[in-house]
Amino acid sequence: MPKPTLVLLPGLLNTRRLFDHQIAALGDLVDIVVPELYRHDSIGAMAEVTLAMAPPTFALAGFSMGGYVAFEILRRAMPRVERLALIDTQATPDKPEATARRRGFIEQTRIGRFHGVQPSLLPTIIHPARLKDMTVVQPILDMAKEVGAEGFIREQNAIMARPDSRPLLVAIDIPTVVIVGRQDQATPLPRSEEMAADIANARLMVIEACGHMAPLEKPDEVTNALRRWLSP
After folding, report:
1. Residue-range definition of the domain harbouring residue 173
2. Is 58 helix (H, G, I), strand (E, B) or coil?
3. H-helix or E-strand containing 224?
4. Above 80 in pLDDT, residue 114?
């Protein structure tokens, strides 16, 4: 009997390397598909390429920007999604100040000032205890370099234009896990609490001593949570 498929959706400046631990550890349970979202410049295009790669039905896990894509997939093809995992993400659209900040990043990038993830940004995305842990920091730096300036601009444009997904939450009735780092600054815990409260069949898992990059910071805990969620 063929294994079910798990589609993993990376976040901003991420590649499949974000999920290395999960891919290695869950391979006995599922076949895994990871689309290269950074090659597309809208959430809709990211959703369409993912749906084209996926089998007729699948489990879906989105991290950060990947969560925005997961919501768009549900809007377009909800019957195809059997399970949903939302990892360090949010259903809310950008506030005006966030959009302005993204536009500033794009302008800096266009004039040649894209240097991937700067060390000064790391405290906003990973837990203070992990700032010198190169098993966490190096993949973040490497993935940003791989995505590059053009990919970064495409992703920021996609994120800025995303719709408000909060009205969708009450329509989701599949087994759902919402995973979030306790110290996530980028998509803070209250956003995950709101999503879990509005999705009928959702379980909230808060990972202690963890920032935004939970799949890298606490890979065992994320993998174990996904394994429980995937198990019938």
Report:
1. 5-94+157-230
2. strand
3. helix 219-230
4. no
